[in-house]
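[#protein-structures] MJ: dropping Putative DNA polymerase I alpha catalytic subunit here for a structure pass
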Amino acid sequence: MGEFKHIRAVMGASRSLIELFLIKKKLMGPSYLSMENFFPATDRLSHCELEFVVDSPKNIKVDDTARPSPPFTLASIQLHTQLDSKGVTNEVVAASIAVYRDVNIDSGMKTEVSECFTGIRQISSDAALPLNLEAYCQSKGLPGVKNFGNERALLTWMASTLGNLDPDIVVGHNFIGYTIDILLNRYHELNIPRWSTIGRLDIKRFPRSQNGNSNLSNEKEACIGRLVVDTYLLSGNTTRVQTTNWNLWLLRWELQVLQMAVVHLNLD
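AK: finished. structure tokens for Putative DNA polymerase I alpha catalytic subunit:
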């Protein structure tokens, strides 16, 4: 073992600094923190409205005082895409952000949408929308709809809107496996400013891609600072059948289906 012949193992050597910090401070899930000797940051690292620095991790402690849960801002993101003219790359043609404010995660979420923002672009320069979409939606009481001439303008608006909203929680269906991948690739391809507002860290470099696709760990890194809820992954966990016996009556019992119709397919 070289010059360190008396060393058998180094505990925690394979863990990141943030993991060691969380374990040391016993930060188990969302909680309030008590901080001392903090001051405003001069070299900002995030998109947050307020940013502070402490000289030592010893100045950060868990606050055990009983307090009500803080209100959260939640943003639900939905993309609509189509393949480019070569049939290779997914391009964004529309994007929607539904905003829920003052959400109490302990007592359930209210159903009313606080705000809704939707951006739609022309498919091509010679294929304009058949009507003045913004004026039409405004007349119908939908002020959050915007029309854009190209994909870059649409994504620039989306990145800026996310930064201004600064949601604590981001929700989407197949968000990890699809939405982030599409956004990062299109942000990179079109050189979108403020692209990193998908998270709270002001990241300057784009995540490295592999064969044109973003690496999953880098996709998660881009979302640092926001809680991400992927309903696709959650639905997979809740509806997964616990057996490999494909008897229809057993499946009916497991899925708690009251009525079942069997469709006969002609496979000839």
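MJ: nice. The first helix runs from residue 17 to 25.
AK: one more thing. The chain has seven helices and twelve strands.
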